[in-house]
Each structure stands twice: as structure tokens, then as C-alpha cells.
């Protein structure tokens, strides 16, 4: 006799919501046994459910498997689409787009939508945004491969920044230095900047890299792949983290919690990139490195956290008399090299970045809501 489980038991075995089991059935991932009484619900072959458990656990080349809980959108077993419990087809017949957008955002629907946003003066743009705009502009009307797109974007990114020092030509590091600081570039300073660019060129599957690969998987052109990754790097928990580390190093941040520049998901102790970059800064800015050491000791004593590369970027910015945003700019320009490499690699894969939704919101079936 076949060992069977009901829908709830199948969900428990798989570690998902019952609604996900319904989705598996509708997509042919899991098949109910025939002959079960409707009043008692579906039953499944336990061995088939356990086999699916193993498939979900197994890491397979060329696949991207993840389940994300969401209360925003649900697709029912019949394929009907619901936005926060409201039937999307009925909303399409009764509601304005603006109202549905407010529904998705969970707002009260009373906000004013402007006729047109104010135009942006490029002179007021932050350096990181200048770079993102330069990436997009670099690709207009072009059909370049990834290396060509990356070269153009990196050079355009550097050129987009205002010059504060003596203008320079040559390597990317030589061109970038006077965009960051009025200090005279010498061999040791350029070596430190070069080291930062190299150490930050790639870092396995960081968030921005996953974003870029997902974009490349849709066969977007290389410039948009770079732009997607660059957008993720704008976050203060990623590419812009060195700004908060700069605050901690210059004494303008409280240390009652672990400051930016300490701790890393990948490293249990000190980020090796931190040590490598600090070693390049110490010969010409020992006083800054002493401040880094003092901060590191204080944070280790208070929180047990080790320094990461964002603190080293902040140290480079302070040592160079650069502004708070300099570390983000270095990170962004450097990481375009890795983003392009991952984009190239992703082209060899099918469209695969489609995580499974585990719906945890309401289950209403009507269209009551925005009109």
C-alpha cells in the first residue's frame, strides 16, 4: 500500500506554505494521487514528496533555486493573479493604474502624482549618480560586447567626475586620482589607489553581482547589465558602506553598535582585502592607519567585530583628503570589471533567475479595493 500524506503534511515536509503546494500542483511539479475524496482534500505519494525535498536541497549546475516569502502577489492554482488579495483581472477592469500602484505599495491612495518631476541639474548630482548616468549614456546607439562596454563605461565614469586636482592622463588610477583629491599623486598614493581598484574588481556572488547576472540572464545589453549592478552598489549596506565607515573613522559616528566597516557575511575574522589595502596606505599616511588601529581595537573590545574593506576604503579617503563619497566611487568603478565578467558568463545559461514565491498575505478573491 502506498504511504501517503495530505496537503498540510506535504507542506511541512517541504518547509513551505500550503499555497505553495497548490502552485506545485498547478505547475506539474507535484501530482496528487487519484481517487481521493474531494471533502478530504488531496493526498500525495510520500516518496514523491521526499524526492522533491531532495531535489530542492540538491545544488544543480545552471540552476538558481530560492523561495522568498511575499505578501504582495499570489498566483493561485488556476493561474489567476492577485495583488494583495485582489483579483488583478477585475482590478484591470475597474481601477486606475495609479490606484493599483498605491495598493501594491500599501499606501492610503491619497498621495499626489506630479504632472512632471522637476528636471535634474547634472551639477547637483552625487558622484555615484554621475557614474550611473555615464554608464547609460555610454551605450546609446551601440551594440558592444561586455569587455568593450566595460572599458567605455569605466572611462566615461571617470571622465564624468569633476576634477579637483591636477588633471592627468594614463591609467585609470592616474585619471581617477585628481577626481578624488587635490593632493599631488605620487608613486605610493597611486599604488594604494591601484590596489583598491584591483581588490574590489570582483567578490564572488555579492548582491550587485547577482543583480547583474539576473539582468544578463534576460539578455539585456551589457550597458544595462552594468547599470543594474551599479544601482545595487548604491546601497549603504553594499557599495556605499565606506561613507558610514568614513564617519566612524573621522569621529562623527556613535559606536554603541557595530559601525560600518566592520563585520562581513563571508569572513569570520578580518577581511583580507582590508589588510592588503591598509598595507599600501601606511607608508604615506601612518597617522591615519594609527586611527584605524585605535578604532579597530575599540570595536573589537565592544562588539568583537573585525574590520572589512569598507574601513580600508574610508582610510584611503581620509589619507587622500578626499570627500566622504570617494570610497563609493572607487568601489563602483572597480566593480564594473567583475560585473562585466559575470555578465559574460551568464550569457551561457538559460533564463533561470525566477525564485519561487511563498505567499503569506491575504487570500481574498474579490476586486474590492482601489477603483
Characterize the structure shown.
Residues 6-56 form the Helix-turn-helix domain. Belongs to the citrate synthase family. Pathway: Carbohydrate metabolism; tricarboxylic acid cycle. This protein is mainly alpha-helical and 371 residues long. The protein folds into 2 domains: 1-58, Arc Repressor Mutant, subunit A (Orthogonal Bundle), CATH 1.10.10; 127-346, Orthogonal Bundle (Citrate Synthase, domain 1), CATH 1.10.580. Helix content is 50%, strand content 6%. The protein is built from 16 helices and 7 strands. It has helices spanning 7-14, 18-26, 46-57, 88-94, 97-105, 127-138, 146-160, 172-180, 187-199, 207-217, 222-232, 241-249, 272-281, 286-303, 309-319, 326-346; strands at residues 4-6, 43-45, 67-70, 73-75, 81-83, 86-87, 356-359. The chain has a 3-stranded antiparallel beta sheet. The chain is globular, with a radius of gyration of 26 Å. The model has no long low-confidence stretch (mean pLDDT 87).
